[in-house]
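Database export, one record per block. Field names are fixed; values are copied verbatim from the stored entry.
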Amino acid sequence: MLKNQNEIIKFDLHIHSKASSYKEGTGIVDFSTDENIPTLLLKLNENNVSLFSITDHNRFDSSLYKSIFKFLKQEDNLYPNVKAVLPGIEFDVKIDENMSKCHIITIFDINSNFDNLEKIENEINKDCLQEENEAYSKDRFEIILKNIGLNTILIASQHKDIYNHSGKHSSLSDSTTSVEEIIKIGYIDAFEFQKPKVEGILINNLKNISLSMPLLSGSDCHDWRFYPNHSESNINKGFYHSKAKILPTFKGLLMAVTSPETRFNCQENMNSLLFTEIKLKEQIIPLRNGINVIIGENGSGKTTLLKLINNKVHEPHVKKIISDNNLIVDMDFDPTKIKYIEQGEIINKFNEHNLFSIGDDNNFEDIDTSLFYKIYYEYSQSIKNIINRNIILTSKLSSLKNYSISFEDDMNETSYFIDVVCTRDFYSVFNPHKEPLNEINDLLSNIEILLSNDYYINYKMQLQRIKNELHLMKLSIQEKCEIKNVEAKIKNIIYSCLNDYRRNKETLSSTKDKERAEYQKKKSYIIDSIIEIIKLKNDVINIPTEPRKIEGLKRNIKKGFYFNREATYNNVSMLSNFYSKMFNKYWNNIDKLLCIDSIDDFKKCIRNCTDSRDIEEKWNENFEKFISDAIKTKDYIVDSSEEQIGNTLGEMSLSYHKYFTDDDEPENWNVLIIDQPEDNISNNNIKQRLIKYFDSMRDKKQLIFVTHNPLLVVNLDVDNIIFVKNNNGILSIDSGCLEYENEEINILDTIAQNMDGGKETIERRLRIYGKSY
């Protein structure tokens, strides 16, 4: 019985026999006969050719094929590497009547019915070419195929550039000027070449017309004794066999030509850590070192198999299914080498805004918003200071109008005690050098950090110069700051002493002395107020300028993506937002704010402020709300072409799969397990993008996933399908590659019958063959 898993095999679909002798007058095929089949099979076995075809010129020898089938079925198989033969013919065909002929190798599907061998031969004999240079017209060729009535694969010889129509090589381009059209409509399924340099030419041709087509090598062997050479005198220099990952059957070849990128000339998977099998009681279900999909109805146990493989079997119902079915999988596996994406995990992470986080590793980096905060804090404080200055000025003027003092000469007479009156600047001393000194110290600390970082070793001299200059600035500012601190300290001492003196004097002063002291105090107040008003009047008001735009973007480049975290304020003016959050509508511009000169208006201008006692509190609350909104971030991803990937769940799911499958390093992980990767992603994006992401991993990692979408089975051309059925908790499993079939199961039929849209998906892939499911 044919095993249910395909593998990479060599094949040769272009070998001749004695039946081609009418075109080979030199006796070159005289030894390629029924009696010499062991010679051919021995040569094929030595070259590890698993699948071959005898494709004679416009002839078909059914008896020869029957003999070959008998040899391959012998129990004492002397040619273990040779697995199967496919019936075929090399037709001479003129596609365009006024051009030369081309060779079209036609492979037939006899569907294990040997009567079809005679049918092919009989139809050929009804319209048999006789002359060496004779060829079928396109219509005659198609009528023969129609009368035979079997599924076919057509492979056109092309031994040169597809735009070379010289008529000397029996290539498709010698027989028609419409090669591109022939390819596009699917009339021809593959090109055959013989020389490696021609393969390069054809690859370039197909790339230029954006088409994918299999390119197959054929030996064109005429004398079996010298296989894989054409004959004793004609050496196929540089020839190499084509390879495909297929079962050695017509159906296997059919699946290969409909998915050439995944089947032809592929590489062995070099992944060294993988799950090899699942045991279901006495049954062994193999797992491929490639793409494995688990399909079946809802509740059939698909997710249970994933949990078993990933050793996540905590739920009671999962444990019961595993126990009842004696399910076993090899658990001797490093869990760090597995990536497991559970069903619903992507949507949960998406909603929690940590879709691209693994553990503590978050691809979106935090933004330092301190500069933005500082700029707007200083701006808001400038406005508040001007308003407070206006209010103080207005208040002082109003107080002076209502405040009077009469000149009384006796109040200036000297009393027993000396009256000392301090001006207001004795109460507290503002030090304008303190904050600049702190800023300079911060800069110096940062430079010290840079100097200790090896990255800046080449910039050490420049940093040292900056440090020295800053240090000189620091010394100058520090001196001024210390002088001001000494002044404040001395005034504080004087003020404290004077307070003690006044308290003692009051207990000893006479009534007249107290009156004189009060008089001096009132006079000092008026003088101080006038001086303060004059100063306020003459102060230059620095109207705050609009804060500059600040960058608020962090970009982390990783695996071909740009992970961007962008603050609302990123390179945009936030002034209108500031005013709308801070002030009521009438007051939300700088001109009106700078005209405020009363506490009542100050209260009215601030949003949500109804009591003048709450001005400071509401001002701070509003400012923090503004900051909170301004520094809010959004995360988005840009691909390597600088095109932004959308933020919808479906688009982010695609990006997630691309990001975590784009990893060629074997030490990072080996197995990817996903439960329904198609969730939230449109069929168009599955076909155009998701399939490509998974396909890129098939020769590097092991992928195991559950799916209900036939596109991720048929179009992805997976290596292994595992079909699960559940009958009251008892599981049954069938498995195999897409082309596998036997007396009990046909994998494509299983997909067609058990997956929504499965039949249509298969028919779209095989439509050019007229095959339906």
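Remark 1: The chain has three domains: 9-260, 277-361+645-769, 389-538.
Remark 2: Confidence is low (pLDDT under 50) at residues 769-773.
End of record.
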